[in-house]
Amino acid sequence: MDDLKSDAVNVATILDRAAIEPGAPENLRVLTALDWERLIEGLRNETAVGFVGLFIDRGRVYLLLRCGEAIVPVVSALNEGTYCAVSSARPEAAWYERLAHDLSGAVAEQANDERPAIALGSVGEDPAWPGFRDAPGNGEYQIGLGPVGGLIAAPYHRHLTLDGDVVVATEHRFGYTHRGVLRLIAGQSPRAAARTCARIDSEACVAHAVAYARAVEAASACSLPLHIEEMRGKMLALEQCTVSLLRLVRAAAAVGADRLATRLVTLRGTIADTLEVIFGHRLMMDVVVPGGMAVRPDLSAWPVLSDVLNDVDTVTRPLGGWSMRKRFGSNASFAGDWARRARKAAKEACNAPWHRDAEPTAVPLPDHDGFGMGAVVSAHGLIHYALSLELGVIAFVFIVTPGSAVAEALERASKFMRIDDFLLRSVLLMPPASGIDL
Amino acid sequence: MTQSKKRSDIVQDLVARLAATGETLLGRSLAIRHVDAGSCGGCEMELLSVTLMWDHLGRHGICMVDDPRWADILLITGVSSTGLAESARQCLAAMARPRFVVAVGDCAVDGGIFKSSSSVLGGAGAILPVDLVISGCPPSPARIISGLLAVLDANRVPSAPGSPAGRL
Ligand code: SF4
């Protein structure tokens, strides 16, 4: 918070005088409606404070702000189901306001986008609502891709405005895979809800499970032994490695580099086979739980995994070569980035220590209610959980995922790109829709 | 690893069965149209392995297609979410008979861990007539391949005259 005080006087002053409700790792700052409005005003010119997420629970609006290293939760009561929109100061909040409206009915006043986010067909005659904003200009035409399309394609709809083969504008429509994850978790025990969290997004099974577990552990004032944190770190590195390889598989297949795609997918498949032996699951689902790990790793397959991880360097090396760079064109740096990340994660996984047999894999959760938050940087960006434990069950949870921000960044980047280049970049960068739709 | 030997056995088995039975109803190929009806993406990861790791399947006539009119199998992954139910139905309606619906993964089998959510309709069976389910969360590539073998086995028995796709 020291950064905040020095660089952001107005916002810091408002947060400093807020009432406090206990929470971990940061207390909740409770604002009056007037101070909430002042805070939004202050955020307009405040560059040192970042927007992380926004959600509604039981008549209150929660705003997560990044202040230096810390993520600070701010809360204010709704006024007859409404609150002053954050998107008027921070456009990136628009998605969260739309999502909050669809999930709770709360209205963000003076929001800069009032379309539904995931409630498809909820407004107007058009079952494919929300509608798109861009109208084609002179000589331009529009096409829609998805939600069903391609060979193995993620279910979202992409609306492209084109001039010849140049992209003029891109919009995404999400919500197709909405599974009611947040409502499903509420009311569950911390242990039971971990299974749902692990199944939100296949490219972040471990990341979701760890972020969720950290939030529960913070809420229940549970501290973990170092070796459990180290084990989780190793699993996160293994997930980063396999996700990076899969991104490269899809991209290599998209540019017709079939042999490379097959080598990469075989490598990833072998890693998954060994992970199944070690953790009992190919994607390491249901291993991380609040309080530790549900599974004691079977290290008999570690030598095989170690060998395979050493192969990551060799198999990803052609991506740096001239012929591959030519195939990837303007996206070569993105492909190279995934290759570097795969190699780095493989090395990290190899170097991190395994815990010894005598050490416990979990500690009991204290019988303690409260508000807690946990975060993890996944292969696609920050995953952040905020939840409240009441009477031993999850009273509410909200999850910030990187998908909507990545989609918005892709929309901005698409302008004036050739459509083929844009679609390839999307193959490289777009996270699974399920993490966005929740 | 021994696993890869098992896999190549499975592939050979599939290729042999396709040669023996494929012409009965499906012609010489097995074309698969995939629809993600509300998946976390895990089943797709394994499906990707099936299509690329065993790329020689393609040489023997088993392939993924993006047009349902060319497809013999509609392969569904994920829960049946309200937002995608109609797309899945339209996909099946566009497929010529005989056609099969295969539900892959626990979510598609019965809604899996999400079955009690009010936002999902259930598994693939809630919106389509399913011929075969392949359980697992996610099922391994070997399991998916085994499931496809079962489709070919099922296809060995010709349907009654007049109802070329009686089971659908
Ligand atoms: S069955 Fe498992 S892996 Fe497949 S979509 Fe459902 S949760 Fe994901």
Mind explaining what this structure looks like?
- Chain A is of the alpha+beta class and 438 residues long.
- Chain A folds into two domains: 2-109, NADH:ubiquinone oxidoreductase Nqo5 subunit (Beta Polymerase, domain 2, 2-Layer Sandwich); 181-415, Cytochrome-c3 Hydrogenase, chain B, CATH 1.10.645.
- Chain A is built from 15 helices and 15 strands.
- Chain A has helices at 2-7, 9-16, 33-44, 94-104, 181-185, 190-197, 205-219, 226-254, 258-279, 302-316, 322-328, 332-351, 403-414, 419-429, 434-437; strands at 19-21, 28-31, 49-57, 60-67, 70-77, 82-84, 107-109, 141-145, 157-163, 166-173, 288-289, 292-293, 370-378, 381-390, 393-400.
- In chain A, strand 4 (60-67) and strand 5 form a beta hairpin.
- In chain A, helix 6 (190-197) runs antiparallel to helix 7 (205-219).
- Residues 1-8 of chain A have low confidence and may be disordered.
- With 168 residues, chain B is of the alpha/beta class.
- Chain B has a single domain (3-154), classed as Rossmann fold (3-Layer(aba) Sandwich).
- Chain B has six helices and seven strands; from the N terminus they run αβααβββαβαββα.
- In chain B, the strands form two sheets. Chain B has a five-stranded parallel sheet with strand order 2-1-3-5-7, with helices on both faces. A two-stranded antiparallel sheet of chain B has the order 4-6.
- Chain B is globular and about 45 Å long.
- Mean pLDDT of chain B is 76; it is low at 1-5 and 157-168.
- At the A-B interface, helix 5, helix 8 and helix 9 of A face strand 1, helix 2 and helix 4 of B.
- The complex binds iron/sulfur cluster (SF4).
